[in-house]
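Appendix B. One record, verbatim.
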Amino acid sequence: MRINTEWRDYEILATGNGEKLERWKDIILLRPDPQVIWDKSCDISKYKINAKYIRDSSGGGRWEKLLPLPEEWTVSWRNLNFKVKPMGFKHTGLFPEQAVNWAMMIDLIKSAIRPISVLNLFAYTGGATLACLSAGANVCHVDAAVNMNERAKDNLRLSKLDITKARFIADDCLKFVTREIKRGKKYDAVIMDPPSYGRGPSGEMWKIEDNLFSLVKTTTKVLSDNPLFYLINSYTTGLQPQVLNNILTLSLKGKKVESYEVGLPTKEGIVLPCGSSAIWS
């Protein structure tokens, strides 16, 4: 398990009964979490909760406002700034546990002492993109959702990073990578943060168990002759770190693979698991 303890604008205040209570700067949100299968350790009614996410029978849900709640606000990690907004499917536009990988990628890029180009697939609102840019890399940011790319651009501007060093692409990741191979485009690092299920902009189906290995094998063809790293994240419950390790080990040769859980410390003194990662470096 790897965690990052640098957050000042985010913390998990309490967990239990399928929910986690989070502080996002000055706003407190209560959200479901499938990993939280234990009882609450404290009375959360003592907290002034701004909003909670309520699931419905269809598998979706809605945010219920309990106290004044801004439409969006900003949180910071190191010198990076991110917009936070309660959205559909309990999302907020940011995964704080990924700070452990941001810190690692920043160190790898800075220690390379050479220009580094990064391909960030399923890039969402750009946490990894901003981290790599802040370390001096050039980044190609690919996500099928146009609105997520726009939020990533907003985060980049908030962080006062050089937008000319970033390229934003709204496309199906496999189709884009296939075109990059044909164009002979190469990258020194690849980041991949795929969903469990999804659809591309033209209705392309994605299921991580069926498609991840073939996408990784295809994407190895865009690596440069002197690649720096290849990082995979997964939030899919039940997809163990060793599975990601095996995929990278079978797809890439010559460098070491490390795999691990990522998690977040809580005010209760426990660590909440938040998915798996593996890095070939």
